[in-house]
């Protein structure tokens, strides 16, 4: 644990240091270069706004209306039947849709069941092992103006299912139920 | 019609119809503005990270550090992205994005990811449709590459876990499964379509 936190503490400053030193050594006009590159960042951030507003409003309506809970409850028995613990179902469904909601749910599950319970461990692994598919899709494709995204969404969601199933199997295997 | 449109309309449309029967119209009204606000706040928050990392990466690109770095990992990544020429700048950005993800530097990963997408789009002739490499790259990102899930570790410590880090190895294995699964599904769908002559 000690090593891990030291590494994560050092890594960003070290990357900055190496890039700056290497740039100076290669006689790159570092500061001007930084500013030029940074300008692009503003453009990108602004251009994503409409994509995220659209997506987050839709997700918020879906959640606030109670429709999400309704669907979760609808799916719960079916998922419980194939071995997904009922408590974890909402998190599994939310994870690809909303990052902040998933993080809130994970900490809620850990608080309720304890970090060292089966549910607590499963929530931890699930949270860490997949990412917010819909957000990444929106931001990455939105920023560069991709309108036809092909099978990206379908494949992303299928990969999430693989991740959920894998999490359940792995946590059961490592810690028992 | 692309699936994203259907999902988008479904979440809002079904939510509103559901609210009619559920008596949650008030919450829905609030959610509309909260959602919009949250999105803008998120983007504004992204500005600082994007400006900083893209600025820094611009130095790394000009000094040649990005290329040097990309060269070392080329054999592995080349296999995942056969359409990307070995010396293309997209390689460097793809690798930086993957590295940042692995080390849990989520907010550094986004700028590199966007830059990589930009380069991949240029490779695809600037067309507004996703190329095979773009889909592969996206799937690698959505299935997560985290080696050390720092946020989860922090939450576990917060709730007095006896062993907060015990989930690191299981998370790594689960991440490996979802990423490998994603890549395999990506390949499978691509080759199936290719065989049927649909491109």
TrEMBL record, chain A:
The UniProt entry's coiled-coil ranges are none
Name all Nucleoside transporter/FeoB GTPase Gate domain ranges: 46-147
Q: Which residues cross the membrane?
A: 7-25, 45-66, 78-98, 118-143, 155-175
Q: Which GO terms describe its cellular component?
A: plasma membrane
InterPro entries on file:
Gate_dom, SpmB
- Entry superkingdom: Bacteria
Q: Write one Pfam family the protein is assigned to.
A: Gate
**Keyword entries, A-Z:** Membrane, Transmembrane, Transmembrane helix
Put simply, this protein is called Spore maturation protein
